[in-house]
Amino acid sequence: MTTEVRVPTLGESVTEATVATWFKKPGDSVMADEMLCELETDKVTVEVPSPVAGKLADIVAPEGETVGVDALLANIAEAGEAGAETVEERPSAKKEEAAAPAPAANASDSVDVMVPTLGESVSEATVSTWFKKVGDKVEADEMLCELETDKVSVEVPAPAAGVLTEIVANEGDTVEANAKLGAISSSGGAAFEAPAPEGQTQYDRPEAGNAGPQRDIEDAPSAKKAMAEKGISRDAVTGTGRDGRVMKEDVAKAGSAAAPKPAAPAARAPVSADDENREERVKMTRLRQTIAKRLKDAQNNAAMLTTYNEVDMSGVMELRSTYKDEFEKKHGVRLGFMSFFTKACSHALKEVPEVNAEIDGTDIVYKNFVHMGIAAGTPTGLVVPVIRDVDAMSFAEIEKAIAEKGKRARDGKLSMAEMQGGTFTISNGGVYGSLMSSPILNPPQSGILGMHKIQERPVVVNGEIVIRPMMYLALSYDHRIVDGKGAVTFLVRVKEALEDPRRLLMDL
User: Fold this and answer.
1) Residue 468 lies in a domain
2) What is the residue range of 405's domain?
3) Which of 33, 483, 500, 507 is catalytic?
4) What is the DSSP letter of 108?
């Protein structure tokens, strides 16, 4: 009886992948859940585990081949079918069976650490950081590790107090929702010792970093791939993982010390050896990869155009200065500029609804509500939390929502639901000192307003030159839906509302 190995679900909107590396060859024995091969998509690298124990009968999709979701990759002859033949071909099998350690007395006290729910439409994450190592004591709810999805970071707390006895998913590994990350001995693990890898006894287990001939340790699949790509021998790498397991970062260290340096990729400009020694190569985070893809998709798919105007901020600044103390005392939140811009855009969107619409195939979907995206910078990249039904909110409600969403964004606590469903976006580059820029659309939205730095400039008012606090406004829009007249009208309405904030109170 054979078991098929098929391409797993690759993620939302991802339909195909390339077979990057096979870690096994036909005839090799495999254990259940042992990594067989690695697939690469345009977003992530996906490891494919063995569904059963047995022998790899054949490989249907070789390295370099493009495969679709659920395509057949290989077949495995199950261990039960191989019977004595499998054992005969692996003389160490009997030894492994005899040497297999007996279950620990406190095995029933072991608590699995699992990947938490990642959010709607998110099926996998990357283990970015472990805060604990095997053998460390942990408290209940203490942070064990951090996972990174293509949108948010997720912290994984300890489900119980005890000792971390096992780490299954190492830093850099890709894990699926509800996959096992590690295990905790809730009894305290007084006599804890990291178990030897299957096929080893405690007597022939090498010391960490030992790459001698007696080693029988399965290196991280990502490390194997990196060694193959860099042409680095396993003996040239010192493993820092458990029992000397080689991790991806170990290969990077060995590669930086090796000579000669590998040739630069053809796409890069030539660099001298001295310059290359001073470079640092860091893999893009999943969030940064997603940001890059979405921004490029927006440029490729939309007929994007930007129109500009400027606004005299004197009226808003005067009103804010007059009422900010009383406002904060009553509502418990500061009165900022964002609530004025949010209100002004909500009013303008009602007059020019095509800026609040989106294209769906050959249809235009008009939104009779405003879910405002407020772009926020975080240490890991730009995210856009959404404030729902902002057109029905008061100034105080808007300020509270912006403050709360901004804090959650900086702390990496935003859920997927909080960043979905926006109909229009405001981006404030002025907080970083930007004087003028052209914001990029946030698909499938058709409009985004760019705010900029408030700067005193000479302007002509009633025939006289005066100094006023001015801000440039930029509206980027999808010209497939929004005509130039509509875009200019929208920006003029925003300008009018901000220069005379009383219009907002009068709903004009």
Assistant:
1) yes
2) 288-505
3) 483
4) G
Place of tokens 């907002």: 504
Q: Is residue 277 part of a domain?
A: no
Give the model's pLDDT for residue 284: 76
Structure tokens at 14: 């991802």
Among residues 28, 204, 411, 479, the one annotated as catalytic is: 479
Shared-domain flag, residues 27 and 174: no
Q: Are 369 and 429 within one domain?
A: yes
Name the residue with tokens 């997927």.
416
By CB atoms closer than 10 A (0-12, 13-18, 19+), residue 455 is middle
- Measured CA to CA, the distance from residue 63 to residue 430 in angstroms comes to 48
Average pLDDT over the chain, rounded to whole? 79
Using an 8 Å Cβ cutoff, are 50 and 75 in contact? no
The yes-or-no answer on residue 483 being catalytic is yes
- The answer for residues whose C-beta is within 8 angstroms of residue 107's C-beta and 6 or more apart is none
159 plus 302 within the same structural domain? no
What is the arithmetic mean of pLDDT over 121-139?
83
Phi, psi of 417 (to 5 degrees): -60, -30
Q: Evaluate whether residue 197 is within a structural domain.
A: no
Instruction: Confirm whether 395 is domain-assigned.
Output: yes
Phi-psi region of 11 (alpha: psi -120 to 50; beta: other; left: phi over 0): left
The b-or-e profile of 101-129 (16+ CB within 10 A means b, else e) is eeebebeebbbebebeebbeebbbbbbbe
- Told to judge if 371 belongs to the known catalytic residues of this protein, a careful annotator would answer no
In the chain, how many domains are there? 3
Render pLDDT for 27-61 as a digit per residue (tens, 0 to 9): 888 888 888 888 877 666 778 888 888 899 899 99
Is 0.85 topped by the overall pTM? Answer: no
d(CA 496, CA 508) in angstroms, rounded, equals 10
pLDDT at 206 (0 to 100):
42
Q: Which two tokens stand for residue 441?
A: 């659309």
Please report, rounded to a whole number, the percentage of residues in the chain having pLDDT higher than 70: 78
305 vs 295: CA distance, rounded Å: 14
pLDDT band, residue 8 (cuts 50/70/90): confident
More confident residue, 5 or 1: 5
**Are residues 114 and 60 located together in one domain of the fold?**
no
